[in-house]
Write a structure and sequence with these properties.
43% of the residues lie in helices and 22% in strands. The chain has 761 residues and is an alpha+beta fold. Helix 2 crosses helix 3, helix 17 packs parallel to helix 19 (704-722) and helix 18 runs antiparallel to helix 19. The model is unreliable at 736-761 (pLDDT under 50).
């Protein structure tokens, strides 16, 4: 998204609006999208014991974190966006599945920062699609819809409420007549088993069986062949979404053997028959979480790549009936909604007034020890319907604390199998010092500690602040009375003030548990690694471009030299030039074959430039031969028009002067044009004389640029004079007699009006 242009989907280098989320290496050269997918093979995954996560190990021994790999993709997209917009891209909104945990969201944020992007927010896929759905619509009353997103890695169902909310500003009393569209997420359900990738895997395994049964050759041990079958499985799955049968064709799959077969839609449905019940379960879970039924739902909006598969639509229809809607672009709705979300965060952009409200995903609790006790306490903080963003803050109170302590933030229930539950440990420090300051004043009750927890705009749990808080007595009075007044009226008494609240900030230290985020030093180092790779790739790209450019130029030059004698090149080249080019070409080709592999881009360009210097005069003569005749005609025409102008202008000048009227042009003006014209005509005559004695192989005596320049100069001089206005002629009138009537005076004036020559007018 960029100011001054509509929000649209970026194209990749293959002019595709959608690409695979893959990064791959071919030796030291990285590739992305379909090019990377064609290189896909099994990766070596090793444990990162320090951060309790995993990293990818390449054959060359280098290690790459998940954040770095995702950061590479973000950087690639950033480069495409900068090339398209011509501007630096600094911020991004990223959509993530709603079930992403703190660990996964933190990894995405780290990846963005590695790529040099500031995260505006991570928003859930369902909210992004809902925003796109609401952009062109208005809602007079509350509507509940389900965003059913069936994609490669999960199926999610998000219940969203669309409503109209009055636009209010701080201090405003009356409601505004204008409404903003409110998009609120109520709940969601998800399944990470019945996915597009699982269908691809099962279909690939089916293709493996077909090939092995037909050709009696084991294919599973060949990574490249398995990757090609995976790609073919994706294509076949897409074809079967619209057709009953699909042809399978993979050339030279294994040991030169071509694989050709067919798969029916019924076969695919049989492969996934155990998943059918899972396709609709996210809808059931979302309804249960929101306390709704399908009677409350207006429509089920389908999105995601595999939502087009008939058996998935059929499974959904069994639950929702005729409420299925295809109201958004299944592939692009999420990114378009995310872009609009980003635009609404910028005050310089004018957008439709919309408000968004997302929810958390899980029950989150605090675990901590009771003061001076080994008993562990559990305190709920957030529920799956807790709001995300600025309004999500929740303050917790910890009474009777006299020393530093810590609380563990964790998920109440298991998020996913074998997934860690403890998120982070929050240490509250300097408690004793804050308490000592409190004891210096008289407090109404013992001081206590308050801590504010919140969900950030990216759905991540944060600790905003912590304070030691107490209320103290104020012995001063709100009504000051004199002794005399109290003596006269004993009922007058001082009214005590309300207790004063005092607080002292505490130092908060966060210790991440389970999966540890990247440190700032680690992200700086990762940015340096990626920047180094990008720099090397850019240098290689420039070098490859120079090599290909030189190679293509040499082959073109060879064809010219070896061509027939009646070719334009042979007609315009001089013998010594042909000899020099032939010798230079032979040397350059030998150098290209023997030494060019070690040359940099600068040397490759120099080799081409050296030969172009010899060839350039030939090119110049050829171009002059093509454009010269036309330029000559234009100049001769300019001469003729200028000469005609001078003749007519002088004739009109003479007539005006004889009539006693001012002339339109001065003699100096006409003389200047005539001098320029005479000079140009003489230059042309001399040039034509020389040109007639030359051949095509000689440098031309008359050059196109010179003829065009002289013609333009003459045209400008003539046009400048033609724009001069015709001066008014002098008029004389005799004194009117006092006896002359008004009518006769008018007639006399008419008779005295001057007449103009047609040319003068």
């Amino acid at each position: 998204m960029s100011p001054g242009r509509p929000i649209d989907v970026l194209l990749n280098t293959d002019s595709k609006r959608k690409m695979q989320s893959v990064v791959a290496w071919n030796k030291e050269e990285r590739s992305f999208g379909i090019d990377a997918f064609n290189l896909i093979s099994a990766a070596t995954i090793v444990e990162d014991a320090e951060r309790h996560t995993c990293i990818v190990q390449r054959p060359d021994g280098s290690h790459w974190t998940v954040e770095e790999l995702v950061g590479m993709q973000f950087m690639y997209i950033k480069q495409l966006a900068e090339q398209e917009s011509g501007e630096k891209i600094a911020e991004a909104v990223v959509t993530v599945p709603p079930y992403y945990t703190q660990f996964e969201r933190q990894a995405v944020v780290d990846a963005l920062q590695i790529a040099g992007l500031k995260p505006i927010a991570l928003i859930n896929d369902g909210l992004a699609v809902a925003i796109n759905y609401a952009m062109p619509r208005t809602f007079s009353e509350d509507e509940h819809h389900i965003i059913y997103d069936a994609g490669a890695s999960s199926i999610t169902a998000t219940i969203v409420t669309f409503s109209a909310q009055p636009i209010t500003t701080p201090g405003q009393i009356l409601k505004s007549s204008k409404n903003a569209t409110q998009v609120s997420v109520q709940s969601f359900g998800y399944d990470t088993v019945a996915t597009g990738m699982e269908l691809d895997r099962r279909l690939r395994d089916h293709l493996v069986q077909l090939f092995e049964s037909s050709h009696q050759k084991p294919v599973r041990s060949n990574q490249r062949a398995m990757a090609r079958l995976w790609k073919e499985a994706q294509r076949v799955k897409s074809v079967l979404s619209a057709n009953a049968d699909a042809v399978v064709r993979v050339e030279s799959l294994l040991e030169g053997v071509d694989f050709k077969d067919s798969v029916s839609r019924a076969a695919l449905e049989n492969l996934a028959k155990d998943l059918r019940s899972r396709f609709s379960q996210p809808i059931v879970h979302a309804l249960d979480a929101a306390g709704m039924t399908m009677a409350n739902i207006s429509s089920v909006i389908l999105t995601g790549g595999i939502s087009r598969i008939p058996m998935i639509r059929s499974a959904v229809q069994e639950i929702v009936g005729d409420k299925i809607a295809v109201s958004v672009n299944a592939d692009e709705a999420a990114v378009l909604g995310a872009a609009f979300y980003g635009a609404t965060t910028k005050s310089t952009w004018r957008t439709k007034d919309m408000r968004f409200q997302d929810t958390g995903a899980y029950d989150v609790q605090l675990k901590y020890r009771k003061e001076s006790s080994s008993k562990e306490l559990l305190t709920p903080v957030f529920t799956p319907r807790s709001r995300v963003g600025a309004t999500s803050g929740k303050k917790l109170t910890f009474p009777k604390r006299t020393d530093d302590f810590a609380v563990t933030v964790s998920y109440k229930n298991m998020v996913r199998p074998d997934f860690p539950e403890d998120i982070m440990k929050v240490h509250f420090l300097d408690v004793a010092d804050a308490l000592a300051n409190m004891t210096k004043v008289e407090t109404i009750q013992p001081p206590h500690i308050t801590a504010a927890f919140a969900y950030s705009d990216s759905g991540m749990i944060t600790v905003e602040d912590a304070h030691m808080v107490a209320e103290i007595k104020d012995t001063s009075s709100t009504v000051n009375t004199s002794t005399e007044e109290q003596a006269e009226n004993p009922l007058i008494k001082d009214e005590p003030k309300a207790p004063q609240r005092i607080s002292t900030p505490l130092r908060v230290q966060v210790q991440y548990l389970s999966v540890t985020p990247m440190t700032e030093e680690g992200k700086v180092a990762a940015r340096g690694r990626l920047a180094s790779i990008v720099e090397k790739e850019a240098a290689k790209s420039h070098r490859d471009e120079a090599y290909n450019n030189l190679e293509g130029y040499l082959y073109r030059l060879r064809d010219l030299i070896d061509g027939d004698d009646d070719t334009p090149f042979k007609e315009f080249v001089q013998p010594k030039e042909l000899l020099g080019l032939s010798k230079g070409l032979a040397e350059a080709l030998d150098w290209l074959n023997d030494e060019a592999d070690a040359a940099d881009a600068q040397l490759l360009w120099k080799k081409r430039n050296d030969l172009e210097k010899i060839e350039q005069p030939v090119i110049t003569r050829y171009k002059e031969g093509a454009s010269g005749p036309s330029a000559l005609k234009d100049l001769q025409k300019a001469h003729a028009l200028a000469r005609a102008f001078l003749m007519e202008a002088r004739e009109n000048r003479t007539l005006a002067l004889e009539a006693g009227d001012p002339a339109r042009f001065t003699e100096d003006e006409l003389a200047s044009v005539e001098t320029t014209l005479d000079s140009s005509e003489e230059w042309l005559r001399e040039g034509l004389t020389k040109q007639r004695a030359l051949t095509k192989r000689d440098d031309p005596a008359l050059r196109t640029a010179d003829m065009e320049s002289r013609g333009i100069t003459l045209q400008k001089m003539v046009k400048s004079l033609e724009k001069k206005k015709v001066p008014r002629p002098k008029t004389t009138s005799a004194p009117r007699s006092t006896s002359e009537s008004p009518a006769s005076a008018t007639d006399s004036a008419k008779d005295s009006e001057p007449t103009y020559d047609r040319d003068e007018l």
